[in-house]
Specification:
alpha/beta, Transcription Regulator spoIIAA, five-stranded mixed β-sheet, two-stranded antiparallel sheet
């Protein structure tokens, strides 16, 4: 039963707003068609039993039935806007006719309310406001004409039609309330579900930020450790320290090396610093200029700097460069540098030991 009803009124549009209008339009058309069918069946029974003759209003109801079938067919074929417009215009014309023929009777007022109600649901602004204003204007004009006694004698509408109109308007109002409540409930549930999703996403984001922060802190600690290990200051003997340089030396690393060396000089109270460049990679003029800058910074603190480990091929390349070697002592390797440093302190190596 529910599946069959859904096939009759279920929307086919994928747009939520258009689907809402299509559903209500289909429901309104089905209700009106059912009311027309009920009325026509009732009048057919009366006519066959000879209790009443056919009247003009019966033909009007039959024409209305055919028109509503056309509107329903258009709606099911996806022409929702056209069908809704035809229904609203038809209701407005019938309302105007009833205002003219019955004055401000119950039927005209109910149909006017139904027209405003259906127009408000099926027509977008400002069209729905135009419809409401037109119905109100027609009612006001009717009231003025009644006061001025300019309307023809009112036509008596059968009580069955009046009761049917009351039932239809009441049913459609109840239907609107139900549909609105259902849509609001569905929207509220969707909003709550979305809020829960957003809360979960926010918790995941906070956890991710915390993980990233912890990872960044660990990386910073590891980077600091690597920096410290990349340029370690090693005390050899009292007053003598060695700083081995390994890898490439750029501007930033040269500054860190200089800071590390100055701190090591102060910590170990060094008098001689041995810079071992044996492990340098890509030694060129810029690299040696940075190394010499480190050496000059150390000399400004009052120590003697010994540069060791310059390879023969590198030395040949550096000869043609205008580098400031003044005040620096150079030795071939670390052993020779240590022997020089000991000699500056009045000591020497005997069999690999200090003497």
């Amino acid at each position: 039963m529910i599946e069959a009803l859904e096939k009759l009124i279920g929307p086919k549009s994928e747009d939520p707003e258009m689907a809402r209008k299509e559903r209500f339009l289909n429901v309104a058309l089905v209700v009106l068609l059912a009311a027309d069918v009920g009325y026509l069946v009732y009048r057919s029974i009366e006519w066959r039993q000879g209790r009443d003759n056919l009247r003009i209003v019966d033909g009007a109801i039959l024409a209305t039935f055919i028109f509503l079938v056309l509107c329903y067919w258009l709606s099911r074929r996806g022409r929702v806007r056209l069908s809704a417009g035809l229904v609203v215009v038809f209701l407005f014309l019938v309302t105007g006719y009833l205002f003219h023929t019955t004055g401000l009777g119950v039927d005209a007022i109910l149909l006017g309310v139904l027209t405003i109600f259906v127009g408000g649901l099926l027509v977008n602004p400002p069209g729905n406001w135009v419809i409401a204003a037109s119905v109100v204007a027609a009612a006001a004009a009717t009231a003025f004409a009644v006061q001025q006694d300019r309307l023809p004698p009112p036509i008596q509408i059968p009580m069955g039609i009046t009761l049917g109109l009351v039932v239809i308007v009441t049913f459609l109002l109840a239907l609107l309330t139900w549909l609105s409540t259902r849509e609001l409930t569905a929207a509220l549930c969707a909003a709550r579900a979305r809020m829960d999703e957003l809360q979960v996403l926010d918790e995941e984001r906070q956890k991710l930020v915390a993980d990233l922060t912890a990872t960044t802190e660990r990386q910073a600690q590891l980077l600091e450790m690597v920096r410290e290990l990349s340029s370690p200051v090693a005390p050899v003997l009292e007053g003598i320290i060695v700083l081995p340089l390994v890898g490439r030396v750029d501007e930033e690393r040269a500054q860190r090396i200089s800071d590390t060396l100055l701190q090591g000089i102060a910590t170990h109270q060094a008098q001689v610093v041995i810079l071992d460049v044996t492990g340098l990679v890509g030694v060129d003029g810029q690299t040696m200029e940075r190394v010499l800058h480190v050496a000059r910074s150390a000399r400004l603190s009052g120590v003697e700097v010994v540069l060791v480990g310059i390879q023969a091929e590198v030395a040949a390349d550096l000869i043609g460069l205008r580098l400031d070697w003044s005040g620096l002592v150079t030795r071939a390797d670390l052993r020779a540098g240590v022997e020089y440093a000991l000699s500056r302190q009045g000591m020497r190596l005997v069999g690999g030991r200090e003497s």
